[in-house]
Amino acid sequence: MTVYDRGEAGRGASWAAAGMLAAAVETEPGEEPLLPLALESQAMWPDFAREVEAASGVSVEYRGEGTMVVALNRDDAAQLRHSYEFQKGLGLDLHWLNAAEAREREPHLKPGLAAAVWSPRDHQVENRQLGRALALAARGAGVELIEHCPVVEIVIAGGRASGVVTERGRDPADVVVLAAGAWSREIGGIPPAHLPPVRPIKGQMLALQMDKAAPLLRHVLWLPRGYLVPRLDGRLVIGATVEERGFDSSLTAGGVFALIEGAWRAVPSIEELPITEMWVGFRPGSRDDAPMLGPSGIDRLVVATGHHRNGILLTPVSAAVISSYILTNKLPESARPFSPERFAALPARTGRLANARAAR
Question: Which domains does the chain have, with CATH numbers?
Answer without folding.
Answer: 1-360 (3.30.9.10)
